[in-house]
Specification:
Shape: elongated
Structural class: alpha+beta
Distance between the termini: 65 Å
Order of helices and strands: EEHEEEEHHH
Strand content: 15-25%
Number of helices: 4
C-alpha cells in the first residue's frame, strides 16, 4: 500500500496545486488521483487538510458550450426565484429562509 507525501502548510514543492489553484491556471485534475497532501496545524483540533494534484498531469478546463451555458442560466434562475411568490429576487435566495425575505418576514414589509 502506498501512501501519499504530506507537506506542511506553504511548503509544497513546485508542480503541485489544489483544485482552486488548478482552476485559476485554467486546468482541472482530469481524473488523476490525489498526489500529495498539505496539512496546516491547529491548536485544539486536527489539522486542516488540502489535497494536491500534479500540474503536469492536469488537463485543460472543458470549454463552455451553449447547452451548458443554458443549463447554468436555468439553474441560477431557479436559485433566484422565490417558491412562495414566484418572483425573481435578483439574487440567490438564502437557503436558511427558503424564500425571499419579503415572504419570510411579511410583518416587517408592511411596517416599512
Amino acid at each position: 500500500m502506498s501512501t501519499i507525501p504530506v507537506y506542511r502548510w506553504r511548503l509544497a514543492p513546485e508542480g503541485y496545486a489544489t483544485r482552486r489553484q488548478l482552476r485559476t491556471l485554467g486546468l482541472r485534475p482530469g481524473g488523476q488521483d490525489v498526489a500529495a497532501e498539505l496539512q496546516r496545524p491547529r491548536r485544539r483540533r486536527g489539522p486542516l487538510v488540502a489535497y494536491l494534484y500534479r500540474t503536469d498531469r492536469a488537463k485543460p478546463v472543458r470549454p463552455m458550450t451553449p447547452g451548458r451555458a443554458a443549463a447554468l442560466a436555468k439553474a441560477m434562475l431557479a436559485r433566484r426565484t422565490c417558491p412562495q411568490c414566484r418572483r425573481d429576487a435578483g439574487y440567490c435566495i438564502p437557503t436558511s429562509l427558503g424564500m425571499c425575505p419579503a415572504c419570510a418576514y411579511p410583518e416587517e414589509q408592511r411596517a416599512a
